[in-house]
Specification:
alpha+beta, single chain, 6-blade_b-propeller_TolB-like, hydrolase, Rossmann fold, Peptidase_S9_cat, 4-stranded antiparallel sheet, serine-type endopeptidase activity, 35 strands, globular
């Protein structure tokens, strides 16, 4: 069942997506009015509006479907759909809170957390809490406090668990009222040390501590809900430990350095077959999926899924009686079915919905005919369908952004580029809908992180907004980007502002050579590390970029170590950053040479700088120091904006509208054809 050939889903889907979207017989009609490109260009708030439907999950027996969607008050609410009658029942909605996460405890009860999705950093004054409720709305109980914000439901507030108690994402057998949770017992504001694992009864609110090795931070349970596998971390020491049963001692399967480990064994879950599913390189540059027999420590004879170009880390798709498949993202999301019936079902659905990635979910019990489909593409935000395998009928449940017309969105295409040191790496290109695709004003959008997963083929509000303004968008997956193999990720060590920056410039020159980009109208932009790369790009490659937009960007590499008020942990500064970025003492000259604040005199282009005043990841001191340095160097073309309540990124709708409106005006002013 290996992937012998790379699934280049993006090329196939994006070609299809350029055609008009055809209506499907038997499905709900599309909205009567779409948001046009002209509307979006005039009002960025239209693009960054809150989504309507944002998730659904079957009850274990498959008779009901929990759904999260937007209420009439504009908040994310929770409802339950009876699948026999297709009648929805509103389960929980509030005027001042959003349902954040939700999951079924068993067939009769659900658990959920709350928060404010529009609250900027300064206004976040409560934890997510934890609540449980019966599917008919009865038995609502608050289980975890929310610090200074409470939901009045009649429960005894004195018996609530502390606000720092969180539910685990993976739950046991979904039969009784218990769920897994953990409590942070030692936290210094930057890093977690001691976590207490709990079994929490959602009916009584009682929690008991579960025995686990010291410094455990990840846990996996078997199909009966018994703890079997844990990962510990303390400083730069981590272990993976297995226990055959409750009476057996814990056995170490692997010890490693969590900051620099190259991914020799990454647990993806315990299957209902008792095997541990892992991603490992096993002598290869790329991660692939295998099973591990925990009793012997032996890997399967062959990989279950692999790709010659991308790392494969598969999420288990299971039913109570078998592992059905592995779901992972390479250039686009792929489900590698291990079950022949599910493979046939996928092919059947893909014929009806040929222009989207179609993520299929089935009930845990396997006894009901229902299939949940989440369909999405580069030009299409998620749309949710229900399919009945017996009647072969589709029902449209809702959409994340029903106001977005796929026919008017820009397609994404992946291209492979050769770096100046001879390495191949990908870059995504999106062009304005209807453009000729030649000599376009171009935005080089550098992702943050920088150690994050390769950008995937999916609808992106920021990219689509920039395309709607008339710009081509180039997204280079420079070295250090994860998901492209160990060599590409490792090649970024101590290369901030150097080889990592060369990749961005090489991608830009490639776009010019392909006649995609107008060489006189190119801007570089990005947030966090992308903001850092924007500033370094303006300083190092002044011939390429006419202007830049940097928000929440790093400006001083030494300040990453010295800013005691940032949320970077002391352990990361001690064990991770010296290897990944550079040693503060031994590499001091290198860090200084590759800090934008010390290259301010080389930046002469117009620049838009934006920061959140409550940012604890890249504190605003980075921006203030850069602004002063630019002024002292004589650069008077700096637009500056700071948002008093925001942190490391924009949350408040008004902030998003203001910032992207500024971006539109800045780019229009500095990338006009007459300025070329």
């Amino acid at each position: 069942m290996s992937l012998f050939n790379h699934f280049s889903r993006s090329a196939m889907y994006s070609t299809m997506a350029r055609r008009d979207v055809m209506a499907l017989a038997g499905l709900a009609a599309w909205p009567a009015r779409w948001v046009s490109a002209e509307d979006l260009a005039a009002d960025p708030a239209a693009y960054f509006a809150r989504p309507q439907m944002t998730g659904a999950a079957f009850s274990p027996d498959g008779k009901r479907l929990a759904m999260r969607s937007r209420s009439k008050e504009g908040r994310a609410m929770l409802s339950v759909l009876d699948l026999d009658t297709l009648t929805p029942f509103p389960l929980y909605a509030a005027e001042s809170d959003d349902v954040l996460s939700f999951f079924w405890v068993n067939n009769e009860r659900l658990a959920f957390t709350l928060g404010d999705l529009d609250a900027p950093q300064a206004d976040v004054d409560a934890g997510p809490g934890l609540f449980a409720v019966n599917r008919d709305g009865k038995g609502l109980r608050q289980l975890v406090e929310r610090q200074r914000l409470w939901v009045k439901n009649g429960s005894d507030q004195r018996n609530l668990l502390p606000w720092n108690t969180m539910p685990l994402s993976s739950q046991p057998s979904q039969q009784g009222p218990e769920i897994w949770a953990f409590r942070v017992e030692a936290y210094d504001g930057k890093d977690v040390d001691y976590l207490k694992l709990l079994s929490l009864n959602t009916a009584t609110g009682f929690a008991r501590e579960v025995d686990a090795p010291l410094h455990s931070q990840q846990w996996w349970v078997d199909r009966e809900g018994r703890l079997r596998l844990v990962q510990t971390r303390h400083g730069n020491q981590a272990t993976l430990q297995w226990r055959a049963d409750e009476a057996a001692p814990w056995k170490t399967l692997k010890a490693f350095d969590p900051y620099v480990d190259d991914g020799n064994l990454i647990v993806q879950g315990i299957g209902v077959d008792g095997q541990v599913y892992v991603a490992t390189r096993r002598g290869s540059d790329k991660l692939s999926m295998w099973t591990l027999d925990p009793a012997t420590g032996e890997l399967s004879a062959r990989p279950l899924a692999q790709s010659p170009q991308f790392d494969v880390r598969g999420q288990l798709v299971q039913r109570q009686d078998k592992v059905l498949g592995l779901r992972f993202t390479i250039d686009a999301e792929v489900t590698q079915w291990l079950d022949a019936d599910m493979q046939a079902l996928q092919q059947q659905i893909d014929k009806v919905l040929p222009r989207t990635v179609n993520r299929l979910s089935v009930p845990w019990s396997g006894g009901e005919p229902w299939v949940l489909i989440e369909a999405f593409a580069d030009v299409q935000p998620s749309v949710y369908y229900l399919f009945n395998r017996s009647t072969r009928k589709f029902t449209k449940l809702g959409a994340a952004r029903p106001d977005i017309d796929a026919r008017h969105q820009a397609a994404m295409d992946m291209h492979w580029i050769k770096s100046r040191d001879g390495r191949d790496f990908p870059a995504w290109v999106s062009m304005p809908k209807g453009s000729a695709g030649k000599k376009l004003p171009t935005l080089v959008l550098v992702h943050g992180g920088p150690w994050v997963k390769n950008t995937a083929w999916a609808w992106d509000a920021e990219v689509q907004y920039l395309n709607a303004l008339g710009y081509a968008v180039l997204q280079p997956q420079f070295r250090g980007t994860q998901g492209l193999g160990s060599a590409w990720e490792g090649a970024a060590r101590k290369q901030w502002g150097q080889a990592m920056q060369d990749d961005v410039a090489d991608a830009t020159r490639w776009a010019i050579a392909q006649s995609i980009a107008d060489p006189g109208r190119i801007a570089i932009m990005g947030a966090s590390y992308g903001g850092y790369a924007t500033l370094m790009g303006l300083a190092r490659d002044a011939d390429l970029y006419r202007c830049g937009v940097a928000w929440v960007g790093v400006t001083d590499l030494d300040l990453l170590y010295g800013a005691h008020w940032s949320d970077s942990s002391d352990a990361f500064k001690q064990f991770g950053m010296p290897t990944l970025v550079g040693d503060r003492v031994k590499d001091a000259a290198m860090l200084k040479a590759n800090s934008p604040i010390h290259a301010a005199g080389k930046i002469r282009q117009p620049l838009l700088l934006a920061y959140g005043e409550k940012d604890v990841r890249v504190p605003i001191e980075h921006g203030k120091a850069m602004r002063r340095a630019l002024a002292e160097a004589g650069n008077t073309q700096v637009d500056w904006v700071s948002y008093p309540k925001e942190g490391h990124g924009w949350v408040e709708p008004a902030t998003k509208a203001d910032f992207w409106g500024r971006v539109a005006r800045f780019l229009s002013r500095n990338l006009a054809a007459s300025s070329a």
